Structure formats: structure tokens, C-alpha cells
Amino acid sequence: MKEYVLKTNSLTKSYHGTFALRDVSLVMEPGKIYGLIGQNGAGKTTLMRIVAGLSFPTDGNIELFGQSGEKALQAERKRLGCMIEYPSITPNMTARENLTLHRIMRGIPSETIENELLALVGLSETGKKKAKNFSLGMKQRLGIAIALLGDPELVILDEPINGLDPLGVVEIRNLLIKLCEERQITILISSHNLPELYQVASDYFIIHQGMLKQSLTLAELEENCKHHILISCDQPEKLVSVMELQLKTLNYKVMPDKSVKLYDYLDNKELVAKVISENGIFVTNFSVEGDTLEDYFISVIGGDRNA
Ligand SMILES: Nc1ncnc2c1ncn2[C@@H]1O[C@H](COP(=O)(O)OP(=O)(O)OP(=O)(O)O)[C@@H](O)[C@H]1O
């Protein structure tokens, strides 16, 4: 049986009859970075708060490390580190003082973890500088260091790249990849921006109006966005042999509905059309498809940018 770090079963949360989450069922496997993508108000923070035990579902339930039920979940949440909504940083304290404060609050005796975490998030050299004078990226990294106190196996980060400049995004990305690879930490990271999260995450959950619209891997996301010529015809087997023998390409994929995605000849579509027609194949669709990440996201959530 597969081991899951997190499993949600028909998770639902409503506020006075309005759904913030609706029937969300998803699974997270160990050692992966999951991106939770949705527009403002999609339900990302609500989901994270329920997992962290800061809010409770109206319906459905969650399993953390295979355990369910509030008592067991409370125990399993010791294996969880969170940064939800904003980093819980005291502005008038240095990076180290912030870490010490949270370490003591969490009852962690060892001071050595502070040096280790400051080095890990690249804040060792900040000395006496107060957190209020940090850049947004530095604040986010300090928030992540706080979330890492207690050596969590699952880390939940709500919008940690929101508002960062490209360099800041790269810094956070490298940090998350390091955490995942060196410490085998599973990470759930939310964002409203799919292109920004692209390549940070290995798997994606797309959420819209409280509903899980799609759960897909990075490879599936790339496949869905890759530009291709989509051909539907009356003789798909013949089309395949024409592509291989006459167009000399294996760079195609036959879809379950027997349409064919051809990833070559995007710059010479006329030749493809000519060869198909010369072979007496009747074509019902011949179009160039493929989305930018942003377009793809919009198409998954129903083409509604402002909902
Ligand atoms: N305490 C609350 N009381 C009433 N409604 C709430 C409450 N918390 C969240 N909501 C509503 O639930 C929906 C989902 O909110 P949530 O904060 O989870 O979205 P989000 O995807 O995190 O958005 P954002 O990116 O803006 O933080 C929104 O419509 C929001 O207004």
C-alpha cells in the first residue's frame, strides 16, 4: 500500500453557507514538492489551516502520516512545520533572536539548531540587523527557518514567493529543492501564480472556488502545455504510419480518443497537411495547440480570470 504524508477525504469547509473548500480529496507522497495553485480566495489558506489544525472542516477529514481523528492528528502535527499567511517574525529582533524565541516557545533545548538553520536559509551573516530591515525574500527565508525548527517531515508554506523579485524566487526555489533532496522533507507550497511556481514543484494541485480542479505532475503539466499539431482523422493508424514512413518522425502521441499530437513540423504545417491529403486521409481537425502556463491555468479553472 502506498504511503501518504497527507490525504484529504472530501474535505469541505463552509462559512455561513459559503464554501471555502468543497469536497477536496488529494494525496501527497513523501519527498515531493507540491504546488497548490489558485487565485485569491480559491481556498488555499483554508486547506493549509485545516491541515495545520488552526481550523476544522465542516465535512470530510484528513489523514496525516496515515493517522486520522483529532487526537492522533494532534500528535502527528509535531512532524509538521508551517508558515501560513505571513512569517511569524518579530520585527525588532534579529534573525537569531527570532529563531531563539520560537525555539524556546516550542520547547526545543538544543541551541545548535539555530546556527544550522541560519546557514541553511542563508541568513548566517545578518548579525545585528533587525528583521524589520530585511528584504521580503530574507523575511520569507527566516519564516521558513522558523517553520523548520523541530525537524519537520512535512512543511507547509503559504505564498512564500508572493511578491518576490526573480532573484528572490530563485533563492526560495533552491532552498526548497535542497530541503527536499537533503532532508527528504515533503513540501506543500501555495501560490496564485503558476508560472512563478513552475519548476519549484514536482506536483501540482489546481484549486478554484474551493474545488480541486486538477492534480498533476510536472511532466503532465509540461506535456499539456507543449505545442503540437493536433490531428483528428478517419484513419488514425494510417496517419501514424504516414508520419513515421513519410514524415520520418516518432515525435508524436496517440491520445485515448485516437487524435494524434505531432510535436514536429510546427514550422512546416503545410507539408504535414499535404502528405496527409495525398494519402487519402480525411481530416476532421488540424490545429496548433498548446498553452503558456498562465493560459493553461486559466483553461483549467474554466477561463474565468476574475472569478
Ligand atoms: N474566517 C472566515 N470567515 C468567512 N469567510 C472566510 C474566512 N476565511 C476564509 N474565508 C473565505 O473563504 C474563501 C477562501 O479563502 P482562502 O483564504 O482560503 O483563499 P486563498 O486561496 O488562500 O486566497 P488568498 O490567496 O487571497 O489568501 C474566500 O472566499 C474567503 O473570503
UniProtKB/TrEMBL annotation:
Keywords: ATP-binding, Nucleotide-binding, Transport
Superkingdom assignment: Bacteria
Record Pfam families: ABC_tran
GO molecular function, one term: ATP binding
The keyword Magnesium belongs to this UniProt entry's keyword annotation: no
ABC transporter domain sequence ranges: 6-234
InterPro entries, alphabetized: AAA+_ATPase, ABC_transporter-like_ATP-bd, ABC_transporter-like_CS, P-loop_NTPase
Family membership: Belongs to the ABC transporter superfamily.
Protein name from the UniProt record: ATP-binding cassette domain-containing protein
